[in-house]
Design a protein that fits this description.
Distance between the termini: 62 Å
Largest sheet: none
Strand content: under 5%
Oligomer: single chain
Shape: globular
Length: about 475
């Protein structure tokens, strides 16, 4: 849709709201000014109200990627604007970027008024349970609470969750008692799971949901909650079974299908995921996300032709679906057609600049083409997107160690340790880097420290230093723990 098509559509929208023609013209002129400035400047400056009008106009005219761009530009100039942060979460959810949405929610908690936190927690709980539409409804209510001056938000959810007794589990006990008495009441089950998420009392919730299911074995929501409890306790097989029962007991429970498929893929049960994905599509229709999931399974099974066909089919349904571009790039990369892969990865990054996995793929493709400088640029771009995760830093560190730049990799490890809350994996990377740089004494000391802090990650050492697999001293230390 071009600019004038957007304007015509926006005119129709404005007509329904019955504003003045002058206001419509102002919005149109604002769009022209914004798009012209975007081509000349990296980040055009507009007042907050102007950015808001631009972003809403794109959004209302089915242009989520353009709306997201406007929101991100607005946040660069108006970083404390709560409404833009909330709007960005909504856009992430509506473009199937649930993981990024949850990360934004976590960061927004620091600047949000206390009275608004329960609502935000509820939206986060819906995200975790793969119910983005419900999360969007909650967040939209939060947006509606803003006045043009952006006054602090009002209290927007049940006061019981602001009560001090909430912290010691009293509310959970009360809700549990209610849920057992009313096992068919889904609203109570939703509140129970919110409470479980906030307190992280997953073990206690197992017994509760099993009791509820004894009384109402056809409660798809209880099975769904049970699945998440198992998942958080790292009992993936039990979680998978619970998610399966959630849609067996209610074939219209779409979230159950989605979570079962997602977990099956993460457990590398690709054929199982294919069967259930096809069943879901036969019931709910073909959507870009479903086609991409299905194609990803076929790609993992080595059927690149089928996978590519499905990804292209997803693009016919939604030409702006970034995951489809990324997956087509992965097909080309798998078969060493790096030039084509890079082309598709660039398009994925263009449509979604918030995905570190897209940036990593582009970096790896560029590196395969020998474009080392540009590859390094995108490795760092991925770190900028996700600076608090060890795995994002790991690829930059590996880039430097693979090119024998051990001084650079050591500096990156130090930066990573300053940014990441968890450092268990970085400790092994530091040890490996010291060994590779020839400092065995410090390397041994750091290896022993890494093992003491987290012995479960020992295999990471040889991932970063495969040339040391025959080192007897290192093997002795690793075997002794």
């Amino acid at each position: 849709m071009g600019l004038f098509d957007i304007y015509r559509s926006y005119q129709s929208y404005c007509h329904m709201l019955q504003p003045s023609f002058e206001k419509k013209s102002n919005v149109f002129n604002l769009l022209i000014e914004y798009e012209a400035a975007s081509q000349k400047e990296n980040v055009p400056f507009f007042e907050e109200a102007a950015f808001w009008s631009i972003a809403k106009c794109y959004f209302e005219n089915q242009q989520p990627i353009l709306a997201l761009g406007a929101v991100e530009n607005a946040l660069l100039h108006h970083c404390k604007s709560l409404r833009f942060h909330i709007f960005k979460v909504i856009l992430m959810l509506q473009t199937d970027n649930v993981k990024i949405a949850r990360e934004i929610i976590e960061s927004v908690q620091k600047i949000l008024p206390d009275e608004a936190l329960p609502k935000l927690f509820r939206a986060d709980a819906f995200c975790l349970r793969d119910q983005p539409a419900s999360a969007v409804n909650v967040l939209q209510e939060m947006l509606n609470a803003f006045e043009p001056e952006e006054k602090p938000m009002l209290s927007i959810w049940n006061k019981m969750f602001c009560n001090p007794v909430f912290a010691n589990g009293t509310v959970f006990d009360a809700l549990a008692e209610q849920a057992i008495r009313q096992p068919y009441n889904e609203e109570i089950l939703e509140q129970v799971w919110l409470n479980v998420e906030l307190l992280q009392n997953y073990k206690e919730s197992l017994a509760l949901h099993e009791t509820i299911l004894d009384r109402n074995p056809y409660s798809s929501l209880a099975w769904f909650n049970l699945g998440f409890a198992y998942l958080n306790l790292r009992r993936e097989k039990d979680a998978l079974e619970a998610f399966e029962y959630s849609f067996i007991t209610n074939p219209e429970f779409e979230s159950g299908y989605k979570q079962f498929i997602s977990l099956s893929i993460s457990m590398k049960s690709f054929r199982t995921a294919i069967v259930v994905q096809e069943e879901m599509m036969s019931r709910f229709g073909e959507e870009p996300e479903s086609l991409v999931n299905l194609g990803a399974c076929y790609l993992e099974l080595g059927e690149g032709g089928v996978a590519k066909y499905l990804f292209e089919k997803a693009l016919k349904l939604d030409p702006y679906f970034p995951d489809a571009y990324h997956k087509i790039g992965l097909v080309h990369h798998k078969y060493a057609d790096f030039k084509s892969a890079v082309k598709w990865f660039r398009q994925a990054c263009q449509y979604d600049k918030t995905r570190e996995d897209f940036a990593f793929s582009l970096a790896e493709g560029l590196q395969a083409l020998g474009k080392t400088e540009e590859a390094l640029e995108f490795y760092w771009k991925a770190v900028e997107i996700e600076p608090f995760e060890q795995r994002t830093w790991a690829k930059v560190i590996r880039f430097y160690t693979n090119t024998q730049n051990f001084g650079e990799s050591l500096e990156v490890i130090v930066q990573a340790m300053e940014n990441c809350t968890a450092r268990n994996e970085l400790n092994y990377m530091l040890s490996a880097n010291l060994f590779l740089a020839g400092d065995r004494k410090k390397g041994l000391r750091e290896l022993k420290k890494a093992i003491r802090l987290d012995p479960s990650k020992k295999e990471l050492f040889f991932e970063f230093a495969p040339t040391l697999t025959g080192d007897k001293k290192i093997l002795q230390i690793l075997a002794a723990t």
